[in-house]
Amino acid sequence: xxxxxxxxxxxxxxxxxxxxxxxxxxxxxxxxxxxxxxxxxxxxxxxxxxxxxxxxxxxxxxxxxxxxxxxxxxxxxxxxxxxxxxxxxxxxxxxxxxxxxxxxxxxxxxxxxxxxxxxxxxxxxxxxxxxxxxxxxxxxxxxxxxxxxxxxxxxxxxxxxxxxxxxxxxxxxxxxxxxxxxxxxxxxxxxxxxxxxxxxxxxxxxxxxxxxxxxxxxxxxxxxxxxxxxxxxxxxxxxxxxxxxxxxxxxxxxxxxxxxxxxxxxxxxxxxxxxxxxxxxxxxxxxxxxxxxxxxxxxxxxxxxxxxxxxxxxxxxxxxxxxxxxxxxxxxxxxxxxxxxxxxx
Length: 345
What we know:
This protein is an alpha+beta fold.
């Protein structure tokens, strides 16, 4: 049975991740495995499953290592690679030097790892899969090839699971959180605590802490990379709450006088149309022009008005609408608006 870690999220994503691990167990085999879903823009985990029981400390360590450690565990470079799959074997000396292996793998007696970035055919990374073996059974290139052939299909399923389903309404007010350098919540308002509660699920009561740990690690890494070149941009992550609500978190360094970093500031609140639409466009494989047409539909514009705004003919607008209908599985503007309204309630 698949165990779920504290990073677990919206109900629709976990079955996809679990099915991916079950398929990998049948097709390749492993001693342990982890699967995560990401906001593809931030590459921050918003959902997590494991084939075995993983305690809270290990889950937070996984979030931190995946987001902040400048070693081979970072999936961003893997997502840009040609194959999206990498095989690693840790020798004892390497394990002592590599925080990822030292914190996560060696305590579990795993020496061999196969890691993959779950990338779709447009280059968006929707998650990652990591499988482990111990002893004298390393993963082979044929195992990597087997997993590589499946990644586009898993990405398509995962992206749709991330955005499908109705959305509950949310209060309009955002809130501020102040975190320590290791992601611990230091202070917030009652509104902030309400927002954190919305991140949780009954099965995963510690999910908010994992998200904050991952966001803190990413902000810390971004600040370290920027150095003296200037202030880094805030790091943002979009995700669905326990009831399907779209929530966004923006994190950045707190700078105390005279310029000394002092923790992390996070603004948490409802994710509006401008924030969520790029994610929906990526999940439904919309082109840039199709996304502009959808924005016009959401604004209540007629075909003629969309045509004037985009400086294209009404016939071209209609062609784009037909392509959008096909991708979203609807048959009319009214049905399209109704479908999208579920996402922006």
